[in-house]
Write a structure and sequence with these properties.
CATH architecture: 3-Layer(aba) Sandwich
Number of strands: 11
Helix content: 10-25%
Oligomer: single chain
Shape: globular
CATH class: Alpha Beta
Structural class: alpha/beta
Number of domains: 1
CATH topology: Rossmann fold
Mean pLDDT: 92
């Protein structure tokens, strides 16, 4: 069983050991391209969530094809990065959060399940895999243990009123891509952990306007920390010891 890293904004590539091999995987939900290589002596697949050159906006990402492709490649564990806005004034830019819960506030997004025609109801009491979370926390340097991720449709940023509302619901960070990726991974039987990097304070909390350029700048500054965290977690994770998770009842062919 292999490990995958899904890179979000600012993580459009992830250097792997050896000569990287691009793999195009066809699924019933579409095609997905991944890069296969080695990290810490293990086979690792890297998938750029927004495609090469960050060309795919959040509301156009084919999440089902991406997750189905990883399942087809016999991936067992997924570490996924997200750039997020903070809903807390004390979690400033550069804060790394190992997520432990989520809120789905995607109101218009489709393709949120593999079970369109079958009544399968997947348990997501704990949407992020605890073994993967612990692998991250074991090597994490100055990371937050636990945080609730709220996912909105995007592609616009949130209003100040929305930020106040989301915070009142108990969310800690807000992004545009963690859903349905996390829940599809659970349906597919993949262990999944979310690592969020705060790139800005939410609207109305910080000063000034939020820009994509500013988000990418913070991601670039924190890239070394993030790579060290992911490399260490891959090294420590034993995929053979991971228990069965989710229904895993679909054929990606």
């Amino acid at each position: 069983m292999s490990i995958a890293i899904i890179g979000g904004t600012g993580v459009g590539q992830f250097p792997l050991e050896g000569e990287p091999e691009r793999v195009l995987v066809s699924t019933r939900w579409g095609d997905a391209e991944v890069v296969r290589g080695v990290l810490s002596g293990k086979t690792v697949y890297f998938l750029a969530r927004h495609g090469g050159g960050h060309k795919i906006p959040p509301h156009k990402i084919n999440f089902r094809a991406n997750i189905a492709a990883l399942a087809t490649l016999r991936v067992k564990a997924v570490f996924a990065t997200t750039a997020v806005g903070s809903l807390r004034a004390d979690w400033g830019p550069g804060t790394l959060v190992v997520l432990d819960d989520l809120i789905d506030f995607c109101l218009t997004r489709t393709g949120k399940t593999f079970f369109d025609e079958t009544p399968v109801h997947t348990d997501v009491t704990r949407p992020y895999s605890e073994p993967l979370r612990q692998a991250l926390l074991t090597v994490g340097e100055d990371v937050r243990d636990g945080g609730t991720y709220l996912c909105a449709d995007g592609p616009r940023y949130e209003t100040s009123a929305e930020v106040r509302l989301f915070a009142s619901w108990g969310a800690h960070v807000v992004g545009m891509t963690g859903i349905p990726e996390a829940t599809l991974a659970r349906e597919a039987g993949l262990h999944y952990a979310g690592i969020s990097l705060v790139t800005n304070l939410g609207a109305g909390i910080g000063e000034g306007e939020i820009s994509h350029e500013g988000v990418e700048a913070v991601m670039a500054e924190t890239g070394v920390r993030l790579r060290r965290l992911l490399t260490g977690a891959v090294e420590r994770l034993n995929t053979e010891a991971l228990p069965k998770i989710g229904p895993g009842a679909f054929s990606a062919g």
